[in-house]
């Protein structure tokens, strides 16, 4: 009997879904739109994170040494900076390399190349390019440049611009994160309200049918169960449609980001591929809880005997 | 709980039953009524005299404010919500507006009444065609209610009410939405059902129907029984 009832409940749920196809389409559309909003927010968060990481990675302090600084002192500075916990990487560019890079970079600028020839010697000294783990680490690195061991050998340090960039990035990052959190909260509440009301409307349309089922002796559970199973079907359809939209859309927009940040920097597709089960699994479960809860709540009124 | 055999009990027994609606509307006022197994009783009266309230008390759509309602020896005055489906599976009910499930076919509407009771599919496949044959709809089994005429829809509703072989059939204005010819058909069907042994309670204000029946007529006025006549006529 249990098996027969279960079979009938599932059958009625599919019948409800199919025979009220327009209502099902509207409900699924609302659920899909809600889920898409959540996923767009996820993408925005991911892109923001990656953008911040990208910009932080690009910030470096170039330390230009005097032409005549001995290699021993350069090595000493190199070792010193590498031991700092705030430093991610230190790269040395010799005077010759710096000269070659400069010439390549200005290969089309005849005036500069002529000036260099007139000078008749390499005007560049060795350079250290220092990268930090995070933007906030630059304060410590800039302070470290004043170390008496090599302070007098440094001709120039171009950190002044970075200081303001660093502070701007910090401010923007924190604002974006706070804004994102608030936006996520608002969207979550809107999503809850949309789903709850969509389900309520769907049940309201069925209220007469529910009344008839009661009159012919259907128990509350027998009436409720097909509607709950139908919400599972609606949720499965919605999540499948969202998955079918998200992956091609991500594959389409990722190259646009790559144009700005370089290939693979945002890693949107791979991020969704690696975390797809978690992302869509969590969304499916949340959707199921909200839709089933709303259904049970909306039906309570109509099931009173 | 199941309705008992009618040897020791009245099929329907109202003991001093009243029903009040807030703020001060009287649905039924101290009604005493006994209906025996196999009777065909018409409840008549003008609109607002308590006919439908009486019918609703029979299948626990309403609870009495005072008094006791017994159906087949089962006191349903304070019936638990969980027992209501059990009661309704033993009483067939037919309404003026048919109350069919619009998204189910004729066959499915009738089968649904069995399916909710957990009747095995084999039995459902046996019983439903038989009932369809009784109500004369075997050729329209796979149509949806909106594809049927009013008379046919009412026959589906009667088929659904019959499918459990109920001891009582309550018909609340079953001909209210039908023309004269269809009304006569429905009446013949109800008489046939009664001949099989089912107690039929017909709530109506259709004078012609009552007069054609020549069975027991109970007249309500202001929530009270003002006459109860064997082989009666519609007198209001």
TrEMBL record, chain A:
GO biological process: cell division
Domain ABC3 transporter permease C-terminal: 181-301
Membrane disposition: Multi-pass membrane protein
One Pfam match: FtsX_ECD
Chief location of this protein within or outside the cell: membrane
Membrane-spanning segments: 21-44, 181-206, 227-250, 277-299
UniProt subcellular location: Cell membrane
Origin superkingdom: Bacteria
Domain FtsX extracellular as annotated: residue spans: 59-145
InterPro entries registered for this protein in UniProt: ABC3_permease_C, FtsX, FtsX_ECD
GO annotation, cellular component aspect: plasma membrane
Record key words, sorted: Cell cycle, Cell division, Cell membrane, Membrane, Transmembrane, Transmembrane helix
UniProt similarity note: Belongs to the ABC-4 integral membrane protein family. FtsX subfamily.
Name of the featured protein: Cell division protein FtsX
Organism whose genome encodes this protein: Candidatus Uhrbacteria bacterium RIFOXYB2_FULL_45_11
